[in-house]
Every structure is written in structure tokens, then in C-alpha cells.
Amino acid sequence: MATSTTNGFRGYATPASSQPSIRLGSIAPNFQARTTHGDIDFHKYIEGSWAILFSHPADFTPVCTTELGAFAKLKDEFEKRGVKMIGLSANDLTSHDKWIKDINQVSQSDLQFPIIADADRKVAFLYDMVDQQDLTNIDEKGIAFTIRAVFIIDPAKKVRLTMLYPASVGRNTSEVLRVIDSLQLGDKKGVTTPIDWQVGDDVIVPPTVSTEAAKQKFTDVKEVLPYLRYTSGNIK
Ligand code: BEZ
């Protein structure tokens, strides 16, 4: 089907009206796909785990090569947090398999997570991993470029955090791990995290908890303002 941006279609065969709106807290849309680890049903793949789904514009491109190598080297960090990784790039499996060799050579890595072969951008459109400019900046088949998206999904399959980067800007793996740490600590302890928070720093008592209740729940509560209360981040 032809691509159009003027008649209600969002790129390749995807009417704007049928584009799912992926909001924080919504269930991550399911899909079936071919990956470097075989065919998957996404919901079955992530079942019971945290997951990070992250996309790349294309195989054999420089920024993407550095990103995949960096994520591959953090396998133990993601595993420690119970997070399954899955990448996506808009090429086929033969291309992915060859590209992984380059990635591992350049980054001295051993890439072990699956990469979705999304040559027809089916998953990219399902997750709206395409920018406005790229809807008009299409390839020879009439399909738009995939941007760098990150979806962090919790064990209930809810989308908890998204990051969208243009093709020209590589991501920051430390920030991805930091936000996972914040989400997991928040879920476990009912706290929120301030600007530039790092593991071990003080955390914030959310406005829904009174200072009195906070003092019973946490050992130390520092009240800076009636609505800004900190407690130690070393809560077990
Ligand atoms: C890159 O990975 O370097 C890249 C990919 C697509 C467009 C621009 C840059």
C-alpha cells in the first residue's frame, strides 16, 4: 500500500486511527516477529520479567553499532535487575547475523539478546517508532525510517517509561539502568526519586503519604517543605 502523510495514514499501511496510543501505564502491544533467536510472541517472551525493547534505524550504521555493543556488555547489569533485553532493527535476519559479528568485534562484546528483524517496519509502526520527518523521508519501498526508541516494560506488561531519540543521537546506557533502578525501588518501597538521583542517594516521600505516616514507615524523614520530604535511599 502506498505511503501517505496527508490522508490520515501514518506511513506504511497504518491509518492514524488504528495507531495504538502507547501511554505510560498502558499494556505493551503484543506482536509476533522473527528474531535472531527464532520466532517469538512478544508477550510470551517477556512473560513475568521486566523488559527493555529498543529500536535502531538500521544494521551496519555507526551509532547503532556502538549502541548495541554497549548494551551487550551490560548483560549482567540487566540480568541482575531481572530485565530481558530485546533489540529491533529494520533489516532481515541474514543482515542481523552478519552485523552482530561486526558489533562484537568493534566492542569486544558477546551480544546474546535477540534482535527483531523488522524489515517491513511492522513493529516499528505498532510502537510508533517513527518520527514526523521520517514519515516523509521514506526509502525506495515507500517506508519510513525507524528512530531510536526505548520502552521499559514491567512484569505486568505495562509500559513504564519511554525514551525517543533521533537517529543522530546515541543513547546513554547508564540512564537506562538508572531509570530501571528508580522504577524498581519506587515499586518496592513506595518512594519517588529526585532530579539526577543515583542509587544510594536520598529519595522522596510522595505527596500521597503524610509526614506522620512517613515517619512511621521510614527511619529518617527530613522535611524541607511540607510537600518535599526526603528519606534515606538505603532502604532495604
Ligand atoms: C547511525 O547509526 O549512525 C545512523 C543510522 C541512521 C541514520 C543516522 C545515523
TrEMBL record:
Its EC number is 1.11.1.24. CDD domains: PRX_1cys. This is Peroxiredoxin 1. Thiol-specific peroxidase that catalyzes the reduction of hydrogen peroxide and organic hydroperoxides to water and alcohols, respectively. It is an enzyme of class 1 (oxidoreductase). The gene is PRX1_2. It comes from Exophiala sideris. Residues 1-20 are annotated as: Disordered. Gene3D superfamilies: Antioxidant, Horf6, Chain A, domain2, Glutaredoxin. Belongs to the peroxiredoxin family. Prx6 subfamily. Keywords: Antioxidant, Oxidoreductase, Peroxidase, Redox-active center. One of its GO terms (molecular function) is thioredoxin-dependent peroxiredoxin activity. PANTHER family: MCG48959-RELATED (PTHR43503), PEROXIREDOXIN PRX1, MITOCHONDRIAL (PTHR43503:SF9). Residues 22-185 form the Thioredoxin domain. Pfam families: 1-cysPrx_C (PF10417), AhpC-TSA (PF00578). InterPro entries: AhpC/TSA, Peroxiredoxin_AhpC-typ, Peroxiredoxin_C, PRX_1cys, Thioredoxin-like_sf, Thioredoxin_domain. Transmembrane segments: none annotated.
